[in-house]
Specification:
The structure holds two protein chains of two kinds. Chain A is of the alpha+beta class. Helix content of chain A is about 40%, strand content about 15%. In chain A, α3 (about 60-70) packs across α11 (about 240-265), α13 packs across α14 (about 385-435) and α14 (about 385-435) packs across α24 (about 710-725). Chain B contains 25 helices and eleven strands. In chain B, α5 (about 180-215) crosses α10 and α22 (about 615-630) runs parallel beside α24 (about 650-665). Chain B starts with 5 loop residues before the first helix and ends with a helix. Classes of the chains: A alpha+beta, B alpha+beta. At the A-B interface, α3, α8, α11 and β10 of A face α7, β6 and α11 of B.
Chain lengths: ~850, ~675
């Protein structure tokens, strides 16, 4: 009986196992091939797919039509969440988590350390010298504990292309690319190509595709991707239809070759091909995109006379230094500085990241540092009148006292954090020292050599962080140590107390509205009570007003405004505006200042279920007093407010509701997306929140229970680092304007929140067993956060509630905030089997 | 007295002869101009077909009895009176040999005449040989005699390349030994001649682009023809351009168009930003198709007065002197224009509410189709400014090459110095030592001819000032060019009507076309040598063209058409049917199968690739049929490989075996190795 019972139990288990295997077989994606195309606008793809070529009678983009329109599913309303900018956008697409990287370039305010996420050349040089393994963006994401989609696949089961978030470098691609360039063509073809102009750029792209096609025949590989920037490049330069079609046809042809190769492999039925892009492109055949030079504006006397630092050389193609590939920080010296003439390299006062072009992020030196710097300069003068000296000294120390509390806290906290970092460095040194010096082929195939070098790269980066912050803190400590009693400005060196090459603390709205740029023309002036008259003594700039009023003289294109700046966005601390009834419970506030009195607040809070809710509030005359109190008047809904939602005919609100009533309510981000995604600014409300609000990942949560002291300090340190790269102002360009001063992008740009720039491309197609519907167009809007969870869900790596399977959870994958695009799986009769968790014999591990 | 050895004297005599020959025959680059042979019988009955309703361009199509068409693009002289024949200028004529039918597959484009391109006068020729004479010497005034010179013969694009090399060899062997004067004269002459032709090639390209851009008029040229004309014209500017394979034309054309639009956009934006930064006004000038190829920079009377004390001025990229405090502007009595602007600085009509009047003074005119930086073409305060910039590179080259006999390849110091200098001036965008302004200069002349947007008085002034920029004594001014174009067109029409004119020319061209069908490669190479060595005066042709000859040409042209198509198809897509209309592909394969015994290896390779890239069985079978009928080793090798391929379905492999067997029996061209393998595997 017992034997029978055991036998029957075994039979039941066997049947169950067979059943599970059968279900898995019925709807399984074992392999994913992702074609990542930078800046591929959905509308252009749609337009050219629909257009017939008179010569062939087929679509202008026949392969996209064949693969994705006829045999796949396309998401018709897929948007960038955040700025339509490659660095941030790919970071979100590659991680599926909220935005941590907020520009193609980021600057640390305290040290001016720059994170240049786009520049391949320093990465390759660093890789050649073995002190860098991954692209800078990957390093930054590793620090904040966000794994990439590719990390869901073991090193030897993935094949990745050259891309922004690239792990490791493949030098053979460069070498083989060059070889193949000559061996894949006949001598006659090479000669003709040389005669008509050798296209060196395509050497790498051709080779990357060639390698992908080769690797598709390797059954072990489960994730493969190919990244292309050719369309983005073409669209920046040229606005004409023919150039765009041609660039798109190259993408189309690549899709054809990849799809055909997939179909010729045994895994074809279980392979999904995905086409995804990071943003659209604002390009119009009739209009040149016009550039506006913010560097020049800030360098002018009216703009504050700033020495400006950028990470891109101005007019790069016209500078001899432009050929230097490592691009250090570029300082643009102004002759109109009020008090720092000739000191641009030591004391720059503005940092500008204009990458992305339709937007720019600006850091200005803390206005308090400016006050101290100017007063010290004055106090060092021997001819300063005694009453002015007294007043200036008093004001100097009053300024320090006003900042002392926050500076003292920063100093203490950062010293603690650097202590923890030093201890970590020592531990890491030991780990690095213990690493093998030689690697076998098996090690290299498994990526163990890269893992080892990655340890060193982290160590190197931490050492550099420690050195830079320690230097800054030393100067801050000197400043805080000053006392009126032993204060002798003549003997004091300014650089000992005012840190060189540092922006100091972030500026408040009050600071930016009253930004101190120098001495007033009359110099220091005392009030009747003998104190320093700070209103009369200093020249100030209201940056919101300055930027809102910018206009140009040459207005030569129909449909292009003479105002280059659409609006300026800045984050407001909710604490400063709590008095206002509407704002109770608000966790983040973003102020949009559109010039000509057009202002609005974007408010964010979480509902009782922890879901993000957003509200758009028209306001006017927002100002902040010196004590931090924000005064703001509620404004009525009207046309012309920032983002122009109210008047947009494509705003889709629920039936029966009036626009003002609906717009006055709190709504979830999904409700906003559904209502606004077809408007001129699409999902800007969500995007601005994503861009300017702070998002704490688990690895940055220093209050989490169970952490050791050093772990807590190191998490706080990483969190602080992310805050230190936050800019004072986000400036968003008007339609067909851009801020690119490296060169010119007359063809088109992106970076803004215009729908044309945020509306991106996402399409799926797959073999018979993938369950991806054929000929399906999904109208429901989705954004970047949906990409990774959808891929993981398709491949069975996502469990209930959007959580990763255990294997991935252990690697740092966490719950994904984005929605899975369920329509793509609508033909999967059962949830896909978790491929990542399978054992070698194919049985599913529960 | 210096004695000259007889051998050297003979060499000198020979050199003088060739030098003279060079000087006086270079402007006649194409034999069509020289061939005024005895009359043929066929008359050129002309029928004109006009396209009404085209505001900028009109096409005149003359049908010739001998089976050809002469297509002429007319442009409106001042752009103000659409379809006013009195103000029209004939611009480009193209001869299309149709073989007398309406089927475009056997058409062949032949000569392209840019009708402003003319044979220079003796005075112009002599001046063109004077070193360092960087100026025009007047216009050609006399009426045109004979046939105008063509800028290219599209049926023989490679001729250019060989002639260029012949001239280079002659220059080095016969002219250079005579010292600096002879060397620099002949080189200067060559350079001017080449530049003169280049200017007109550029203008022909621009005219054809504009004509093509006329959205409401159906082009008389098929897309393939337009591609061929434009690409081959572009290739005339490249050293080996004439021998580039047809397969590259599309890519070349696209690359050129993209690069040109890229440059234009960059320069547009660069100039706008610089004008904005310096407080000037920027005005793009547009060709009739709306493309902004040039731009004006203005200041205002008010700014001149109010900025008198302003010190700040950045000359970079603008390349004109500071207008602030310039006395010439203070007392400016040249051209001015009053315009009206609204509150957003947009130009508006005078009666717009709130419009403010601004008196504008032109400062400079720039060309935007120029590498790297906008090319200054007119400086309204300093006429010599653009010319000095244009001359800078030319002087440097002429002095180095002709006077100092320095060559980049012969002197390492010069090579290094020049490379660094070129790099710095180019990289920095300094407007000295920059590529020539020929393109943008040529386009501006066209713009002045066609644009209605400029005030006539202002246009006249620009035109007058523009002529100063030209370095070439062979150039004529705008008015003369319009007159010459009309006269040349009339001469061409006369030539087309004469029995001994275009009809005879066409007959000769067709007989020359028969040569590859009648002779092997060695003979053709020898004929080519004869042609080149006789400076184009000897061209081998077959004897009188019988009806069979005409049929042969017809088949050969169609075969070439289908060959081009199949090659394109075969390389375009991994699965042909996704991208192409398969009935068209099959039609081409069918034609090659029926007439393709002489088809080449490239056609066979194309058929084999199509076989591999289609799943359509009918097409696959046609590919096999095609490969069987093409009588060359490549075709049979491809057939053999298909037969060996185990993944190919059995019926197809069986069919390929049958074809191979037949081919062996018929003793078609098969490599010995393949023959052995076929016989052993399939049998005979």
């Amino acid at each position: 009986m017992k034997i029978l019972s055991t036998l029957s139990r075994q039979i039941i288990v066997l049947v169950l196992v067979l059943f599970v295997s059968a279900v898995a077989h019925a709807a399984t994606i074992r392999r994913v091939v992702v074609i990542k195309v930078d800046g591929l606008p959905h509308d252009q793809v749609e337009r050219f797919v629909r257009e017939r070529d008179s010569r062939t009678g087929k679509s202008r983009l026949p392969w996209i039509e064949h693969v994705f329109y006829e045999r796949g599913t396309r998401v018709a309303n897929f948007y960038v969440r955040g700025m339509s900018l490659s660095g941030p956008s790919w970071s979100m697409l590659d991680t599926g988590q909220h935005l941590q990287i907020k520009g193609n370039v980021e600057f640390d305010r305290l040290t001016l350390h720059s994170y240049d996420y786009l520049n391949f050349i320093p990465f390759y040089l660093g890789n050649a010298f073995q002190n860098r393994v991954d692209m800078p963006g990957v390093g930054a994401l590793d620090e904040v504990g966000l794994p990439l989609l590719i990390d869901a696949y073991p090193y030897d089961e993935r094949h990745t292309s050259f891309q922004l978030y690239q792990r490791g470098a493949r030098w053979t691609t460069l070498q083989r690319g060059l070889q193949n360039r000559f061996t894949s063509r006949s001598p006659r073809e090479i000669f003709d190509e040389w005669t008509t102009g050798f296209d060196a750029r395509s050497i790498i792209t051709e080779q990357l595709e060639r390698e992908l096609l080769e690797k598709l025949n390797n059954p072990r590989l489960r994730y493969l991707d190919l990244y292309s920037t050719d369309f983005d490049h073409a669209a920046h330069h040229n606005r004409d239809r023919e150039t765009h079609i041609r660039a798109l046809q190259e993408v189309d042809a690549t899709i054809g070759r990849v799809w055909t190769t997939i179909q010729n492999t045994p895994q074809a039925a279980e392979t999904a091909l995905v086409l995804v892009s990071d943003h659209g492109t604002n390009t119009d055949e009739r209009v040149y995109s016009q550039g506006y030079n913010l560097v020049r504006l800030l360098g002018s006397a009216g703009g504050g006379g700033h020495h400006v630092i950028t990470k891109r050389r101005l007019l790069n193609d016209y500078a001899l230094k432009g050929i230097y590939p490592l691009i250090p920080l570029i300082t643009t010296t102004t002759s109109e500085s009020f008090y720092l003439k000739g000191q641009s390299t030591d004391y720059p006062t503005a940092l500008i990241d204009f990458d992305g072009n339709e937007r720019s992020s600006i850091h200005l030196r803390a206005t308090d540092l400016n006050v101290l710097h100017i007063l010290l300069q004055q106090l060092k003068r021997k001819d300063l009148a005694p009453d002015l000296r007294r007043a200036a000294t008093k004001n100097f120390f009053a300024t320090i006292e006003r900042c002392r509390a926050s500076w003292q806290i920063r100093l203490a906290e950062m010293n603690e954090e650097l202590g923890a970092l030093r201890r970590l460095i020592e531990k890491q040194r030991a780990v690095v020292a213990a690493q093998p010096k030689k690697w076998t082929k098996e090690d290299r195939d498994a990526g163990r050599d890269q893992d080892s070098r990655r340890l060193f790269a982290h160590l190197d980066s931490w050492i550099s962080d420690e050195r830079e912050y320690a230097e800054h803190l030393r100067t801050l400590a000197h400043l805080l140590a000053l006392t009126p009693d032993d204060f002798d400005p003549a003997r004091l060196r300014i650089e000992d107390v005012i840190p060189k090459r540092s922006m100091g603390d972030a500026n408040s709205i009050h600071d930016l509205q009253n930004y101190l740029v120098g001495l007033a023309p009359g110099g220091l002036v005392t009030s009747v009570d003998g104190s320093l008259d700070t209103n009369q003594s200093f020249a100030r700039v209201n940056y919101f007003q300055l930027l809102g009023d910018v206009s140009v003289r040459n207005n030569v294109q129909p449909g292009v405004s003479n105002r280059p700046i659409d609006f300026v966005a800045a984050r407001i601390s909710p604490e400063s505006v709590r008095v206002y009834e509407d704002l109770r419970g608000v966790e983040a506030i973003i102020w949009l200042s559109g010039g000509r009195g057009a202002q609005a607040l974007i408010l964010a809070r979480q509902d009782e279920r922890g879901k993000l809710q957003l509200r758009y509030l028209p306001v006017s005359e927002l100002s902040q007093s010196a004590d931090g109190q924000i005064e703001v008047a509620r404004a009525a809904w009207r046309a012309g407010l920032p983002l122009k939602i109210f008047e947009d005919p494509r705003l889709e609100i629920p039936n029966g509701e009036s626009r003002p009533a609906w717009l006055d309510e709190w709504h979830t981000d999904l409700d906003w997306l559904r209502a606004t995604h077809r408007t001129t600014y699409s999902n800007a409300i969500i995007g601005l929140h994503e861009q300017l609000a702070r998002h704490q990942s688990e690895a940055l949560d220093f209050n989490q229970a169970g952490l050791s002291n050093d772990e807590r300090l190191l998490r706080r340190f990483r969190w602080r680092q992310r805050m230190l790269v936050e800019a004072d102002l986000l400036i968003v360009a008007n339609n067909h304007w851009n801020f690119d001063v490296r060169g010119f992008n007359p063809g088109g740009n992106h970076g803004s929140f215009f729908r044309v720039s945020t509306h991106s491309t996402l399409m799926f197609a797959g073999g018979g067993e993938t369950g991806i519907p054929r000929g399906l167009e999904i109208e429901e809007p989705y954004d970047s956060l949906s990409f990774v969870p959808t891929i993981l869900a398709l491949t069975g790596q996502l469990g209930e509630g959007g959580n990763s399977v255990p294997a991935l959870w252990r690697q740092g994958f966490r719950t994904f905030p984005g929605r899975i695009i369920k329509e793509v799986m609508s033909q999967q009769t059962e949830p896909a089997a978790p491929v990542a968790a399978k054992t070698e014999n194919g049985l599913v591990m529960k | 007295m210096r004695s000259v050895p007889p051998r050297l004297r003979a060499r000198q005599d020979c050199s003088i002869f060739f030098s003279l020959l060079v000087i006086f025959s270079l402007p006649l680059p194409f034999p069509v101009a020289a061939q005024q042979a005895a009359a043929d019988s066929s008359a050129a009955a002309a029928s004109t077909q006009n396209d009404a309703g085209n505001p900028a361009f009109r096409i005149e199509r003359i049908s010739l009895d001998v089976g050809a068409e002469l297509l002429t693009v007319f442009g409106d002289l001042d752009g103000r009176e659409p379809n006013n024949r009195a103000s029209e200028v004939p611009l480009v004529s193209i001869l299309r040999d149709t073989l007398g039918d309406a089927d475009p597959e056997n058409d062949r484009l032949r000569h392209v005449w840019m009708l402003t391109y003319t044979r220079p006068t003796l005075k112009q020729r002599l001046a063109a040989g004077v070193p360092f004479l960087y100026t025009r010497v007047g216009n050609k005034k006399k009426a045109v005699r004979g046939v105008p010179p063509a800028v290219i013969d599209l049926a023989q694009p490679d001729k250019d390349v060989w002639q260029r090399f012949l001239w280079m060899a002659l220059q080095n062997i016969f002219v250079n030994p005579y010292g600096v004067t002879a060397k620099s004269s002949s080189r200067t002459f060559q350079r001017n001649t080449e530049d003169y032709r280049k200017v007109h090639v550029i203008r022909a390209l621009a005219v054809l682009s504009l004509y093509e851009a006329e959205a409401d008029v159906e082009s008389v040229f098929s897309p393939a023809e337009m591609l061929e004309i434009q690409s081959r014209l572009i290739l005339t500017q490249m050293t080996f351009g004439g021998i580039v394979d047809d397969a590259f034309l599309q890519k070349l054309h696209q690359n050129q168009a993209t690069a040109q639009l890229d440059e234009r956009g960059h320069n547009w934006e660069l100039l706008r930003q610089r004008a904005e930064a310096e407080g000037l006004l920027f005005e793009p000038l547009q060709l009739p198709d709306g493309s902004a190829t040039h731009a004006l920079v203005w200041t205002t009377r008010h700014d001149v007065a109010s900025n008198r004390q302003r010190r700040k001025w950045d000359n970079r990229f603008l390349n004109i002197s500071k207008p602030w405090g310039d006395k010439r502007l203070d007392r400016w009595d040249g051209y001015t224009e009053t315009r009206f602007f609204d509150a957003e600085n947009r130009a508006v009509v005078s009666d717009t509410p709130g419009a403010r009047a601004v008196e504008m003074i032109p400062l400079a005119l720039y060309g935007l189709d120029n590498p790297k930086i906008p090319a200054l073409l007119v400086d309204f305060r300093d006429g010599g400014n653009p010319k000095r910039r244009e001359v800078s590179r030319r002087v440097l080259e002429d002095v180095a090459r002709n006077i100092l006999s320095l060559s980049r390849f012969g002197d390492i110091h010069y090579f290094l110095g020049r490379t660094i200098f070129d790099f710095i001036t180019s990289r920095r965008g300094m407007d000295v030592n920059q590529p020539t302004r020929l393109r943008t200069y040529s386009q501006l002349k066209l713009l002045l001819t066609l644009s209605a947007s400029l005030d006539p008085e202002f246009r006249e002034e620009i035109s007058r000032r523009l002529e100063h920029v030209s370095l070439n004594p062979l150039e004529n001014d705008l008015a003369a060019e319009a007159r010459l174009a009309r006269a040349q067109h009339a001469a061409l029409m006369d030539y087309a009507r004469r029995p001994d004119g275009l009809a005879r020319q066409l007959d000769r061209d067709r007989r020359a076309e028969l040569v590859p069908l009648a002779h092997g490669r060695t003979a053709r190479v020898l004929f080519r040598f004869g042609h080149v060595l006789s400076f184009g005066h000897y061209t081998h042709r077959e004897k009188a063209l019988p009806e069979t000859g005409r049929t042969q040409i017809d088949v050969a042209r169609r075969l070439a058409h289908h060959r081009r198509f199949l090659r394109e198809v075969s390389k375009s897509s991994p699965i042909i049917e996704v991208v192409w209309d398969m009935s068209e592909v099959r039609r081409s394969l069918q034609f090659v199968a029926e007439h393709g015994a002489r088809a080449d290896g490239a056609t066979a390779s194309a058929a084999a690739r199509i076989f591999a890239r289609t799943k359509d069985e009918a097409t696959q079978r046609l590919c096999l049929d095609t490969l069987y009928h093409i009588n060359n080793e490549t075709a049979k090798n491809a057939l053999w490989r298909i037969h060996q391929d185990q993944t190919v379905p059995d019926p197809i492999r069986t069919l390929s075996a049958e074809y191979l067997r037949k081919a062996v029996r018929e003793e078609q061209r098969i490599s010995p190795t393949d023959t052995k393998a076929i016989i052993s595997a399939i049998g005979q």
